[in-house]
């Protein structure tokens, strides 16, 4: 560098002299402005060497579109540099350490990106860092090289269990992470390094590292939805739903037209119990997609989601409306698939997936009817499911429970028995409990009823509903202590449940504990002040005291 200014001056003088000669040739009358001297205008050895270095550098840069020629120019340039005896001390060399580092880093980039010379590229990158340990460019190219080597090693030894192969891959992984971290240490705003680190951390089981990297990207490039989405997915995988919600909220702020993300955000609101926010989000999707043919899938998902939100708010009418609307849309899609021409029909997998979605939506509607005490409508809905699959054990269980609610004992027993028989190799606790409870209500087959409910409790030992069933069976059998024990446990898991309180009050009464029975039934009446059965039972106890 110390000869660069001299070289530039000499070139300028030569150019001016040539220009002067040319001008004088235009007119013989032009007088000489300067008299020629005997000054030696030749370049000394140092200047000549500097000229060669910069010629090689310019040629290497000029030939970048022809990688092999560019590589030859870099080779000649570096050979020229290395010929200097003071090269290794750098401070006394022709170029500064930073400039020398730059040249090695450029050749490393060329070898890596264009020539696939991984080994040579790594050597050049390490040499560049040796000259300038703070070189971001050299450290970054080294990080990319090591990342490539790591994945090649993993792919090559995919099925290997040899200790040396696993150890080599692990060493490369650690080098990759440490080098990427070094890039970020040198330049905290290096977005590519953060992206590499985030992606590697996500895929290689280091979620916290990935979260930090993608958080940095949302700071560096705040309006790129990709990084907010990656961050949201990481939070979701870790069960950090509130953080995931915040990230998805930023995504929909940046891309308000992205309806699938809005639907997913709505589902997260459901999981976190923020039902008003879920409803607002799903309604926004419906407003944007309703009537749009291309928006039907998102419209269906929004109707399904908002129905769940209204269920949670005990709004039966709106829950029913939205799930029914989803079913209508699903049925229309199914019909269009069946009526399409052979060339335009959807693939079998799409039809199967659609049939499953329709079945699930109908099942959800039937459950709404059961929950809001409309068993006849539930029966009608379950019948549609069973028309497609007569052995759907969940639908068989549901229709059995619905018939039980309308006191059709034979039908209830038939369907529940079939559900249990079909699930002989698997657990179906709801069916076992429902049939056991049916027998308990009728006061028949109580030993079998107890066995059925105990089997249900093996699957879900903390189910308040199952404990209530077993307590009722013991009450019918006259096993009062066992009945009270199970019913008191049931009310712990399902507090404020009038039906369980009624059974417990009956058990206390049978035991002779009238005061306890009175208090328990009063608690039940406070929950359901219009329940005629509870009011009558309470009056009977008070009048008998």
Structural Rg: 40 Å
Overall CATH class of one domain: Mainly Alpha
| CATH homolog superfamily of one domain | Tetratricopeptide repeat domain
Q: How many strands appear in the DSSP assignment?
A: 0
Level-2 CATH architecture of one domain? Alpha Horseshoe
Q: What is the ordering of alpha helices and beta strands?
A: HHHHHHHHHHHHHHHHHHHHHHHHHH
| CATH topology label of one domain | Serine Threonine Protein Phosphatase 5, Tetratricopeptide repeat
The termini sit apart by 110 Å
| Overall shape | elongated
What structural category arises from helix and sheet content?
mainly alpha
What portion of residues belong to β-strands? under 5%
Helix fraction bin:
over 70%
Largest sheet: none
Extract low-pLDDT stretches: 1-34
- Continuous helix count: 26
Average of per-residue pLDDT values: 88
Overview of this protein structure:
The protein has 545 residues and is an all-alpha fold. Among the domains are: 256-372, Tetratricopeptide repeat domain (Serine Threonine Protein Phosphatase 5, Tetratricopeptide repeat, Alpha Horseshoe), CATH 1.25.40; 427-545, Alpha Horseshoe (Serine Threonine Protein Phosphatase 5, Tetratricopeptide repeat), CATH 1.25.40.10. It has helices spanning 4-26, 45-62, 67-82, 97-113, 118-131, 136-156, 163-186, 191-203, 207-220, 225-237, 241-254, 259-272, 275-289, 296-312, 316-339, 348-371, 375-388, 393-405, 409-422, 429-442, 446-459, 464-477, 480-493, 498-511, 514-527, 532-544. The chain is elongated.
